[in-house]
Amino acid sequence: MAASPKLPPFDPADPLGIDDLLEPEDLAVRDTVRAWARDRVVPYVGRWYEDGELPQIRELARELGAIGALGMSLTGYGCAGASAVQYGLACLELEAADSGIRSLVSVQGSLAMYAIHRFGSEEQKLGWLPRMAAGDAIGCFGLTEPDHGSDPAAMRTFAKRDGTDWVLDGRKMWITNGSVAAVAVVWAQTEGGIRGFVVPTDTPGFSAPEIKHKWSLRASVTSELVLDGVRLPADAVLPDVTGLRGPLSCLSHARYGIVWGAMGAARSCFETAVDYARSREQFGRPIGGFQLTQAKLADMAVELHKGILLAHHLGRRMDAGRLRPEQVSFGKLNNVREAIEICRTARTILGANGISLEYPVMRHATNLESVLTYEGTVEMHQLVLGKALTGLDAFR
Prior knowledge:
By secondary structure, the protein is of the alpha+beta class. The chain folds into three domains: 18-134, Acyl-CoA dehydrogenase/oxidase, N-terminal domain (Butyryl-Coa Dehydrogenase, subunit A, domain 1, Orthogonal Bundle); 139-236, Butyryl-CoA Dehydrogenase, subunit A, domain 2 (Beta Barrel); 245-390, Butyryl-CoA Dehydrogenase, subunit A, domain 3. The protein is built from eleven helices and nine strands. The chain has a four-stranded antiparallel β-sheet with strand order 2-3-7-6, with helices on one face. It has a three-stranded mixed β-sheet with strand order 1-4-5. It has a two-stranded antiparallel ribbon with strand order 8-9.
């Protein structure tokens, strides 16, 4: 009788052996982004969060460009041409540092660059994408408005023709990167339907006042966009899309990154809780030796690694050209919701220390409240799945 093969040791950091699914190139991308985030974000982000700022954002953007993290799943124009799984791994590592850093990268690559890459003219692509991929130009994405978040079809920003020019008037709200962006992709109503416009932010009539007094995503630049008679040439419009299909396809790409990223925030909190449970003593022994603490850690590990498996599965489907928007909604709904629960449970293990910025737990928990809302609220993704499951539209 043949001897049973020797089993690999159990790895608490990878209890399901998910790394076995990754190719050497995948691991190299992950390790590169992890090392950058460990060195350039983790030591400082608690202070950035406390101060409510992201200093040296342009320098950070150039560094992210240098490691190929901006628009990394796009091809050509200086972009890395990475796989969807590699992009997802990068998002996980960035959000393990802070959701604000992953948001910077997601808005740059999955929204602004993606819109130009997929729907723009060759002149628009050549003019912006190489600089954006290098981090020399930061982009933002103007869709959400003060009165219209989940219902973008009702947007009031309007672009009218004036001779051969376009003139834009309106406001956008909760725009990541807005006040530091060199270019904004702005969506507006026109007489012929919703269109996207590539707007250099130095255009007269454009302003982007920064939004302060946030208690979430504090290490991130969030702005309002004000368009007051912004005059653009005819070639500023994205030529290859009309209607909501344009912005919604961009949002689907960004949501995919969130599916991975949320698990990064969850992993950070889980690892913090495990380390704390091993060292914190009560009643004469480490709290990790008590049954209730171990039950919490086991449940957290199960949801964390189920979420990573789900993200990996969706990534392989995207790489195969088989990922549907409903499946992205499935991933965003599950993973962000479970990530928040993992953060909250980690906070209970840390007790009062869980609210201190000495640890990342409360920072991740408050950040994820924003992640839960942007790129589609829980309710919107529930209705997307409900329609897919029943064939009945409950949105209206």
